[in-house]
Amino acid sequence: MTGISRDGSEASIKDVARKARVSIASVSRVMNGHANVSAETRERVLAAVRSLHYVPHSGARSLITQRTNVVGVLFPDLHGEFFSELIRGIDAVARRRRLQLLLSSTHGDAAELAVAIRTMRGRVDGLLVMSPHVDAALLDKNLPSALPIVLINSPLNDARRSTLTIDSYRGARAMVSHLVGRGHRRIAHVAGPTLNFDAQERLRGYLDEMASSLQRVAPQVLPGDFSEKSGYLAGRRLAAQPDRPDAVFAANDVIAVGCMVALREAGLRVPDHIAVAGFDDIPLASLVSPALTTVRVQIAELGRAALEQLLLSIESPARTRPVSRALLPEVVVRESCGSEKPPKRRSRRQAARSP
């Protein structure tokens, strides 16, 4: 493995070892981020690397280690704060371990997912996959059996592969229970995409908690797609209802924000006339006015944990067993759900005249 020094001559790993007064193996361990190196040795090696302007040759390293030092990441979308936070968590681990990320979006399409998986074969040491279309047959057909893979928020229950999920079902039940505890009885739900695993689990949690806590109240579900526009359209529909609900539980924060915009345009105040709650706790949730009550998901932590688990499988495949972990979210109470008891209902005409 060689690099280029400031004067244009090549600096090799042997030059680094000689200058740092350590073995070539010690230099290799430092450059590959291994922990079994003393702090003193690590500092001497890094000082020599800086002095010689040494850059490891990735191709030579790959021939030695049989690794590309690249991790593939396949998501249904790359747009929005949820995916930004997820990638932030993954990237933090990748930078610390000196890895590169190869990202691709499948746009929620099964055929695109299969193509993306096949494209990454031979280019990555392992894969992180989030998709509503993941199943065992698709993975077995398109992936080498030995390639490590970790599934994120996947509907697939496969004992051969590690899966990290958000417990959206329990999070949704906790939010509906919280709204009921605040005195709200007629609670509407703006759902996410029909084929999305998280959206399905949040809808299921909403329906089950409504059936448990408010047996005589019919649930109301409006369609959505995790976008602000779908939340806005749902908000307009709710505002136009002659007997609108006490509260709205949106399948994610982006929907909730769009819904609040529509309610405000209709002359309704959140939470005075109607409470609004979301899911995910994206950074924007605490910045909107009123600040959004939501279900907090440690999104960056989910990405970090997924990559850490994948690296265990890459580095010690024989000793690493697949795991199935569900991260339990928590209700975060802010201003958008109001006081303990909902205010006395007023007509839409009175609400529109309110300052």
Put the structure in a nutshell.
It contains 13 helices and 14 strands. The chain is of the alpha/beta class and 355 residues long.
The CATH class designation of the largest domain is Alpha Beta
How many domains, as an integer?
3
| Largest pleated sheet | 6 strands, parallel
Rg estimate, integer Å? 25 Å
Helix/strand order, N-terminal first: EEHHHHEHEHEHEEHEHEHEHEEHEEH
The percentage helix is 40-55%
CATH architecture of the largest domain: 3-Layer(aba) Sandwich
Give the strand content.
Answer: 15-25%
**Alpha-beta classification:** alpha/beta
CATH superfamily of the largest domain: Response regulator
User: What spatial form do the alpha-carbon principal axes imply?
Assistant: elongated
The side-by-side strand order for the widest beta sheet comes to 4-3-5-6-7-13
Number of helices: 13
DSSP summary, beta strand count: 14
At the fold tier of CATH, the topology name of the largest domain is Rossmann fold
Protein model, in words:
The chain has 13 helices and 14 strands. By secondary structure, it is α/β, with parallel strands linked by helices. Helix 1 crosses helix 3 (39-52) and helix 5 (81-96) packs parallel to helix 12 (299-315). Helices cover 43% and strands 15% of the residues. The model is unreliable at 1-8 and 340-355 (pLDDT under 50). It folds into three domains: 2-65, 434 Repressor (Amino-terminal Domain), CATH 1.10.260.40; 70-167 and 299-327, Response regulator (Rossmann fold), CATH 3.40.50; 168-297 and 333-353, Rossmann fold. Strands 4-3-5-6-7-13 form a six-stranded parallel β-sheet, sandwiched between helices. Strands 9-8-10-11 form a four-stranded parallel β-sheet. It has a two-stranded antiparallel ribbon with strand order 1-2.
